[in-house]
Write a structure and sequence with these properties.
Blueprint: H1 2-17, H2 24-33, H3 35-76, H4 82-116, H5 124-127, H6 132-160, H7 179-185
Length: 188
């Protein structure tokens, strides 16, 4: 009988070593002692965990991500009510009107400066600057240039219509009568 029991135990041992069932103890022992089995087991576990993790992340995204994005958008860019939109439009129109009023006031001020400087008011659009200081500078520059231009033109005219002693008398070098001769002769 003892022999039969030994045979049965050997048979169990042989069955356990063959492809049959593996006990938990044998499995743990194989993982601890055999690096190939441990590596294979770890890769299977990693694949399974990664699949489940990816699936749970996708599920979470489908359920929660859109809500989180909308919440963040609403935090950064809160929805405006109709009253807020109308208020912004009114403020924009008011700001535009204030700028136009300020431009008109500046234009009137510039026109006064032009009148004081004996410059035609029509020149305001050409001489107006960004601010009063720049406009005053433009007016002064324009005045200086115009004085030089007018002085040069007057000098040229005086040279053209001046009396040259020893010349042909009353006619200047261009063959025209002087202003004095026209007045005396009554010619225009």
């Amino acid at each position: 009988m003892e022999e039969v029991n030994n045979n049965q135990e050997e048979q169990k041992s042989i069955d356990n070593d063959s492809v049959g069932e593996v006990t938990l103890e044998q499995f743990k022992s194989a993982l601890d002692n055999n690096l190939e089995i441990k590596g294979y087991y770890d890769s299977i576990v990693d694949k399974t965990v990664n699949k489940r993790l990816d699936k749970s992340i996708e599920s979470w995204k489908e359920k929660n991500l859109n809500n989180l994005i909308e919440e963040e958008i609403n935090k950064r860019y809160p929805q405006k009510t109709d009253a807020e939109i109308k208020l912004e439009e009114i403020n924009a129109a008011l700001e535009k009107a204030n700028k136009e009023k300020q431009q008109l006031e500046l234009k009137m001020q510039y026109q006064e400066l032009l009148v004081k400087s004996n410059i035609p008011v029509e020149m305001v659009n050409f001489l107006a600057g960004k601010d009063t200081e720049e406009t005053i500078k433009n007016i002064e520059t324009f005045k200086d240039l115009m004085v030089k231009y007018v002085d040069g033109a007057v000098e040229n005219r005086l040279k053209l219509h001046s009396y040259i002693p020893g010349g042909n008398g009353s006619i200047n070098n261009r063959g025209q009568m002087s202003d004095f001769e026209r007045i005396v002769k009554g010619v225009r």
